[in-house]
Design a protein that fits this description.
It contains three helices and eight strands. The longest helix has 12 residues. The strands form two sheets. A four-stranded mixed β-sheet has the order 1-4-3-2. It has a four-stranded mixed β-sheet with strand order 5-8-7-6. It has a single domain, classed as 2,3-Dihydroxybiphenyl 1,2-Dioxygenase, domain 1. The protein is of the alpha/beta class. This is VOC family protein.
Length: about 130
């Protein structure tokens, strides 16, 4: 068994696509119209056949409450691995990304957390 797709709830799919591709460097994999919201996925440019991230609309009432609760408690919606967290933090900060936690050593890993502009906190991790 493998993970095929995972998702983050976003408040605007077009804005999310721009952020996740232009800023984070992912590439669009699928963009299927569904009569309003789309089946819109991105993948790592380093692993184009890897796990897809669904940019899922947060229209369901539970999704909005879930996102707000996570952000209020400072909990990231998901986590992405990076090879050099200091370099990635610098690159993203230079692009205007707002970090809620700078790179911080945490027992063998270093993590940082940023706002994805779509209602989520996202963690990056250097193992």
């Amino acid at each position: 068994m493998r993970i095929y797709v995972t998702s983050v709830f976003v408040d605007d799919q077009e804005k999310a696509l721009d952020f996740y591709t232009r800023v984070l460097g992912f590439q669009k994999k699928h963009d299927v119209p569904l009569g309003g919201p789309r089946w819109l996925t991105v993948v790592s440019s380093e692993e184009p056949d890897g796990t897809e991230l669904l940019l899922e609309p947060d229209g369901h009432p539970a999704a909005g409450a879930y996102k707000k609760a996570l952000v209020a408690d400072g909990i990231p919606a998901t986590s992405f691995a990076v090879d050099d967290i200091a370099a990635e933090h610098g690159r993203l900060t230079g692009l205007g990304v707002r970090f809620t936690q700078p790179p911080t050593e945490m027992g063998g890993v270093t993590t940082a957390v940023f706002d994805d502009t779509c209602g989520n906190l996202i963690q990056i991790v250097q193992l």
